[in-house]
């Protein structure tokens, strides 16, 4: 193990460049998966199965996903700018 990068920050290798990502797609796919799971849990609750706790978790996941989509809409240029740095 080399101690030079620990002791001398100038000896470190340069870090990787930031990757260009599309958070809208990630948040949308995640929210869609929570929606599908929520529909399945709702069907189970309507059939009399005890899936109320799972339904609450799915609804919470959908709410968080929608909030993240709203956040992404207003902050898109921040993370896009980071991915475009050279």
TrEMBL record:
Parts of the chain that traverse the membrane: 26-47, 53-71
Superkingdom to which the source organism belongs: Bacteria
UniProt keyword terms in alphabetical order: Membrane, Transmembrane, Transmembrane helix
Protein name: DUF2530 domain-containing protein
